Amino acid sequence: MRILIATAGSRGDVAPYTGLGAALRDAGHEVVLAATESFAPLAEEAGLEFRPLPAAPRAHGDVQGKSALLRAAAAFVTGLGDGFADAVDAGTDLLLLSATTAPLGWHVTEATGIPSMGVYLQPTAPTGDFAPTVMGARSLGRFGNRAAGRFALRMTDRVYEPAVARLRERLQLPPLTATRMRRRQDRAGWPVLHGFSTALVPRPSDWRAHLAVTGCWWPYFDASRRLPAELENFLAAGPPPVLVGFGSMAAGHGERLSEIAVQALRGAGLRGVLQSGSAGLVADGDDILTIGDVPHGPLFPWLAAVVHHAGAGTTAAAARAGIPSVTVPIAADQPFWAARLAAIGAAPAPIPFRSLTADRLTHALITAVREPAHAKAATATARHMSTEDAAGSVVTAVRRLAK
């Protein structure tokens, strides 16, 4: 079967699908990863065919207000929709669609007859169990949570509406709103597999049967690759350090964050590794090392803890490694994942980005590293996650769909 996995967004929205694609390829399928151009090297490293999608990655590295984020999302989606159909060729047998590409992919499926299935990294369907991930961690009660979930979907539909209208016109389909298409897919029981762990978020009790949770899909990593020699040497030279990194977030805040990180690490008596990321973190000294892009999988088990923005991927990687986190959520779904880590005991209470100080970070580091309860909870979470055959569950679902 020739499978096209279509996703778009930041690195965290794309990297997990490289490991999923590799598992499908190893199961005998031809796999193409469609994403924005900058992620071609990720597909190449995983041995997957790559097809570019016509949009620049979402510019959400800066700390923005909600209105600015919505405007950026609308511009991103409009660009994405302008050429989405070009990524799907006649030889495609199955579309696997992320949460960012599904609202466009549904229309391509209608026009071409190519079957599709959702492969989402976050829970998006309304539930009474918790509020939408984009609305933070505060529960509104079962009725309120479901109402907020429906509202969040309507806001998403508004973002996609112009792109959907243009795409349907290009595909020579009759007009149909994004909201009506979403409702049609839900009534039909369109299958969605969710790549998050039930150790972090139990499957909602009120979800219908077509919404499944498989566990996390991990970015592809060549097991023969070693960590950079300088990093290996630093890890071996003393006690396990703490990694501080904010991924694709916090651009323009590097100087402030670097100063805070160094003061906090030294105040807590800990060695540190700063991962530069979009923020441009940098510091030097015998007790601190600055690194660039290094995969989380082989690095995190060597650490005492991780300070991060609570993106879904970094949250899962820290939990998988069985190490405590200190979370500094910035935007989008990050407060939700930060709250989940605190709720299971694998992290102290989150520090909102705008409230971050060296003193607060020092206290949180001492709490995370010195109090055994956090390490114990993180270890239990990792044990749970090790039982989830996430990629295997997708391979099985694809096999069933092909029959």
UniProtKB/TrEMBL annotation:
<dbReference type="Pfam" id="PF06722">
    <property type="entry name" value="EryCIII-like_C"/>
</dbReference>
<dbReference type="InterPro" id="IPR010610">
    <property type="entry name" value="EryCIII-like_C"/>
</dbReference>
<protein>
    <submittedName>
        <fullName>Glycosyltransferase</fullName>
    </submittedName>
</protein>
<feature type="domain" description="Glycosyltransferase family 28 N-terminal">
    <location>
        <begin position="3"/>
        <end position="56"/>
    </location>
</feature>
<dbReference type="InterPro" id="IPR004276">
    <property type="entry name" value="GlycoTrans_28_N"/>
</dbReference>
<keyword id="KW-0808">Transferase</keyword>
<dbReference type="Pfam" id="PF03033">
    <property type="entry name" value="Glyco_transf_28"/>
</dbReference>
<dbReference type="InterPro" id="IPR050426">
    <property type="entry name" value="Glycosyltransferase_28"/>
</dbReference>
<dbReference type="InterPro" id="IPR002213">
    <property type="entry name" value="UDP_glucos_trans"/>
</dbReference>
<feature type="domain" description="Erythromycin biosynthesis protein CIII-like C-terminal">
    <location>
        <begin position="286"/>
        <end position="397"/>
    </location>
</feature>
